[in-house]
## 1
Amino acid sequence: MPHTAASRRIGDAAAELGVATHVLRHWEDAGVLVPPRAPGGQRIYDGELIVRARLIQLCQRSGLSLSEIKELFATRSRTRRVALFADKQAQLRTRVDDLTRTIDFLSHVLRCTHPIVDECPDCVDFSRPRHP
């Protein structure tokens, strides 16, 4: 593939994506983003690979591992894709609930007038396990 204005070398692609070049090499080793090589051996990233890289970043932020991302890109099974994302969505909702509770606790502690946190009944209530 000849190097064109629309293609990027690894350093330019990494800068555009906001990652280090070793991240792109790692993704290549994992098989999730394998760019073609120029005649001199340089990796060449076109617009399509940049889009795929952004999807990888989004999937990683969603909690998917590289092996799950590789499976996602390889599978044509909507059922498998839905199952994978439903599981991640449930995990994220649990994390959001936990973070919301933590923020509520911190907000309370900032307003709390008790000299010792464990003497405050409201603070103690935050330490109790939640029941679904």
Note: The radius of gyration is 22 Å.
## 2
Amino acid sequence: MKYVLHIIKYYPFSCLLIVAIWYLSLCDVPETQLSHVRYIDKWTHTVMYLVTCIIIWVEYLRRHSTISWRKILLLAWFAPILMSGMLEILQANCTNGHRNGEWLDFIANSIGCTLALVIGTLWVKCRGKE
């Protein structure tokens, strides 16, 4: 419990975005005019995970003077991808047909996380914060 409170205290925006992703992933999505744009949901998934992982990077870098690449890979890349897979499984099995889990959504989420990893790594290298 102490670790959870630590995470909430030092990563508040990341936690807020993660809660938003969970909510948006499990609630019914209303039909909009953009629903007819090809692959709009995949772009949305990519951007959601890209922004979330970038925020994790920013909050991590604000708190640490040196980088533990193991921690940053775990927090800002692997954990969001794992969460994404869990959410796709939950969508497929626990939403009474309102949502469906898709491999392409998982791939789009993973692309967003990986783009954030590339951006974060380049940012660190350019700023010399290693």
Note: The chain has a mean pLDDT of 92.
## 3
Amino acid sequence: MQSKDTTEGNNKLVVRVFSFSYKKGIPSDESGNGGGYVFDCRSTHNPGRYEPYKQLTGLDQPVIDFLEKDGEILSFLEHVFALADVHVARYIERGFTNLMFSFGCTGGQHRSVYSAQHLAEHIHSKFGITVILEHREQNIHHTFLAQQ
């Protein structure tokens, strides 16, 4: 009797991660599955309220440093990562093909961009699956391809 390869199907799951502005609405789920997780980043300290950060995004080092300095965003993401890890592992196990995580903030520029970027990198690194990242309001798209 052959043992079942628990990594079989890893490449079937595609995770889509969005950053967005609540002012423009929550991203729609084009997979037809009805959406996924939506996390509200507005409770964390907003660098967009300070002049030096207004023209930057959550991908820029000064904004990253600002967000990480007080640790709020790190604590927030620690909980998100724990939830996402369990969910992704279960979706892989069950052979599902689509999962979506979205992060919203006021303008879709700082906190949500930082959070979406970090979750996408985390999932890709941990599970080696395809992750499609879209910073909707920044018009930035990146695909992390499944590791073979």
Note: The radius of gyration is 16 Å.
## 4
Amino acid sequence: MHESWKPFLQSEFNKPYFQDLAEFLHDEYEKKTIFPKKTLVFSAFTTDLNDVKVVILGQDPYHTPGAAEGLAFSVPNSQPIPPSLINIYKEIDDDIGRHANPTGSLRNWQKQGVLLLNTVLTVEAHRPKSHSGKGWETFTTATIEYLNRERPHLVFILWGRDARNKKSLIDASKHLVLESPHPSPLSAHAGFFGNHHFSRCNEFLEQNGLEPIVW
């Protein structure tokens, strides 16, 4: 985790809800196969808080072996590109011309100040949303509130119902909020395709004197 997040994280880690969550996770990792591995759970928070320009909010980690790496929608270079990310790349291609990433790794986005955060940070193997309602939603709500308060001119990109439920936490007079259905094959044709989030994000960043993201 990056030093810039320490005051926020230490404050949350000391709260009763997070201590209950930590106890739950300890038992889960002992008895079951949980993704991502423990060392990667907080990978999103290796992004320097002071560099964050864009927040992409997803749902929960990939639940198949080898895919989850603690960054929403991202997979290691060695993994095949998941269907949701294929659809994200399709929308980038239609929106701004061509996506820049040759694999499913989104670490290049992270290096440019994109915080890739899920609303729930862990999952049991092959059981999507199995760690919903255990405390992660409280943690990510606090994260969004902190970003909303501490950082200027952010772009919040909310994909899917779980992410869109966080919209009320964001001051839309200060930040740009972009929302649509999830890029999953089950919902991408219901409004994800054609949302133009990538060009709209970059326009907002440039209007506020910030470098656009190379998507």
Note: The longest strand covers residues 54-58.
